[in-house]
Write a structure and sequence with these properties.
about 45 residues, mainly alpha, about 90% helix, membrane, Membrane protein, transmembrane
Length: about 45
Amino acid sequence: MIIAGLIAAPMGTKISKRMNTKVLQAILAVLILGTAIKIWIDIL
């Protein structure tokens, strides 16, 4: 995970500078929603 983070972090900063902030917000919202759904499924 550390190696993947070291590789992906610089790529993410370059991509995020070129992307629209609304797109980044939507991606983050989908990731948070997916995580919340998985946690609820695991609890139930």
